[in-house]
């Protein structure tokens, strides 16, 4: 059974080129990834297939794949350029899975209106390969998204402190349609949990708890070698007198009240402390 798949995207990292996709094959969703790797000055092609329950793969030298496809289909001349322009560059138009002693995956492309197919003989991955190809990358992605969320929350809190300082210095907002309530991080976290109460499982909550606790989150980052490079500086602290405190002994001069369109008396600057 063949299926038409949605668009995917190509990724190039160093000497590794990857073409991942998530498609429906035989009424079941599968992740498919074709990549080219270099090992000891030799190019390898790797095909990975997973269905959220198990993972299968094949890795072979590029020249071996070329020879095998030329023997299987002598009508088409398979070479490195054809592999680069299909497997590693564009989305396949159809996928077919055949259960044999292993798992045979056939992918189909059209090049100048000519059908081109590749066949991979996949074997079940070991636990180590499953961890390398799926579990560790997923955890790294979860940690990255969690880091981005925390930094966005920090930016919103800094903006709230900035707006409050403008108000204390005499700024007046005349466009009431632009007015927003102060950001509350705790309410932000709990609102999604309460709205999705029926869809969030106990396992989901366990992962969220691991991400919430600083010690466990740090251990997870160490386990998957995740380096957080997007940390935002801490929020501006309001002193009892209403003035912002950033550790500098110099006091800020109070600005003279003046009116300009929109927010008064000054415009919103970009966050200067972000890299």
Summarize the structure.
With 275 residues, the protein is an alpha+beta fold. It has helices spanning 62-72, 80-85, 127-168, 185-195, 202-212, 214-223, and strands at residues 11-13, 16-25, 28-39, 42-50, 55-61, 94-99, 103-111, 114-124, 237-238, 244-245. It contains six helices and ten strands; from the N terminus they run E-E-E-E-E-H-H-E-E-E-H-H-H-H-E-E.
Structural class by secondary-structure content: alpha+beta
Broad shape = elongated
Biggest β-sheet, characterized? 8 strands, antiparallel
Sketch the topology as an H/E string, one letter per element.
EEEEEHHEEEHHHHEE
Which residues form runs of ≥5 with pLDDT under 50? 1-15, 234-242, 244-250, 257-275
What is the typical, i.e. mean, pLDDT? 80
- State which percent range the strand residues make up: 25-35%
> Radius of gyration, Cα only, in angstroms?
27 Å
Distance between the termini: 50 Å
Portion of residues within helices: 25-40%
């Amino acid at each position: 059974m063949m299926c038409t798949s949605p668009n995917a995207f190509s990724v190039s990292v160093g000497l590794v080129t990857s073409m991942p996709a998530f498609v429906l094959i035989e009424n079941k969703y599968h992740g498919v990834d074709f990549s080219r790797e270099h090992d000891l000055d030799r190019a390898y092609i790797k095909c990975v297939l997973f269905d959220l329950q198990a993972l299968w793969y094949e890795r072979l030298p590029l020249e071996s794949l070329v020879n095998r496809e030329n023997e299987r289909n002598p009508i088409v001349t398979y070479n490195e350029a054809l592999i680069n322009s299909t497997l590693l560059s564009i989305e396949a138009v159809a996928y077919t899975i055949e259960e044999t002693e292993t798992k045979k995956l056939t992918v189909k492309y059209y090049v100048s209106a000519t059908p081109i197919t590749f066949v991979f003989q996949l074997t079940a991955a070991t636990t180590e390969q499953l961890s390398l190809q799926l579990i560790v990358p997923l955890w790294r992605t979860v940690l990255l998204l969690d880091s981005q969320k925390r930094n966005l929350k920090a930016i919103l809190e800094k903006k709230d402190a900035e707006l409050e300082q403008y108000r204390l210095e005499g700024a007046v907002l005349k466009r009431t349609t632009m007015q927003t309530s102060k950001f509350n991080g705790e309410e932000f976290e709990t609102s999604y949990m309460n709205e999705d109460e029926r869809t969030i499982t106990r396992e989901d909550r366990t992962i969220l708890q691991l991400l919430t606790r600083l010690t466990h989150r740090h251990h997870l980052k160490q386990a998957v070698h995740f380096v957080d490079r997007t940390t935002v500086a801490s929020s501006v602290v309001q002193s009892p007198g209403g003035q912002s405190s950033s550790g500098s002994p110099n006091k800020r001069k109070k600005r003279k009240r003046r009116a300009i369109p929109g927010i008064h008396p000054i415009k919103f600057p970009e966050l200067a402390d972000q890299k």
